[in-house]
Amino acid sequence: MKKATKLFTEDEIRTIEAAIGEVEKKTSAEVVPVVATVSGRYDRAEDMFGFLLSLLVLGVAWVWLQGIAPTGDAWGGSPMLRLNLPVVLVILVVACFLGMALASHVPVLRLPLIAKREMQEEVESRAREMFQRLKIRKTENATGILIYVSLYEHMVHVVGDDTINAKFSREDWQALCDTIIRGFKDGRPEEGMRRGLLQCGDLLAPHFPIQPGDANELVDTLHLID
């Protein structure tokens, strides 16, 4: 999976930022796009992967190595299992920690163990966090809007300020999100972002037309977060 900072070329970034400028020529709203590599930490999924890997390794070791080991005294000694309890515990612990480390460094391994609802919650939470961190809420007329794209989760979320939310619902933004996602699926993320931004402008303009003397309160920048 590519990191957000490596996803676009310089020319593609300029194209996306030019689209922001086009949007803000016809609406007084302030549109801020953010592309993040990942939104959640997903520690539970890493732990689960480590646990499952430890069971798999133990199963393989049991099949290949388990048996009865003879003792030195063939007459008086008792036979022993090759994989006794201490060995089993060491295999479980070592394999579990290796699995957790592996899932942390190769995020795709934990993906099947993460519920879609959990990913949605993480994306929405991080989007709200970025909305505050980038000071989008501080626009004069509360017309800031964040378009947040999370690569790992393959999700797009829109956060609007109070004035925006009074006019639009989440359902109103779904077509915009679908446009952006379609561009990523087609292998043209820059085009998906550009079209999504222009579509956002078309939605905003009738409700928040550009006003005389309107100032650009937020820099027209594509924010990339690893």
* Helical content band: 40-55%
Count the beta strands: 6
Q: How far apart lie the N and C ends?
A: 12 Å
- Outline type: elongated
The major beta sheet can be summarized as: 4 strands, mixed
Show unreliable segments.
none
As a percent range, the share of strand residues is: 5-15%
Name the strands of the widest sheet in spatial order. Answer: 5-4-1-6
Number of helices, where a helix is a run of at least 4 consecutive DSSP H or I residues: 8
Question: Which structural class matches the secondary elements?
Answer: alpha/beta
What's the helix-strand series?
HHEHEEHHEEHHHE
Based on CA atoms alone, the radius of gyration comes out at 26 Å
Arithmetic mean of pLDDT = 88
Topology:
Layout: H1 4-7, H2 10-23, E1 30-36, H3 43-65, E2 68-69, E3 80-81, H4 85-105, H5 116-133, E4 144-150, E5 155-160, H6 162-165, H7 170-185, H8 189-204, E6 223-225
Helix pairs in contact: 2-8, 3-4, 7-8
Structure characterization notes:
The protein has helices spanning 4-7, 10-23, 43-65, 85-105, 116-133, 162-165, 170-185, 189-204; strands at residues 30-36, 68-69, 80-81, 144-150, 155-160, 223-225. The longest helix is centred in the N-terminal third of the chain and has 23 residues, at 43-65. The mean pLDDT is 88. The protein contains 8 helices and 6 strands. The protein is of the alpha/beta class and 226 residues long. Helix 2 (10-23) runs parallel beside helix 8, helix 3 (43-65) crosses helix 4 and helix 7 (170-185) packs antiparallel against helix 8 (189-204).
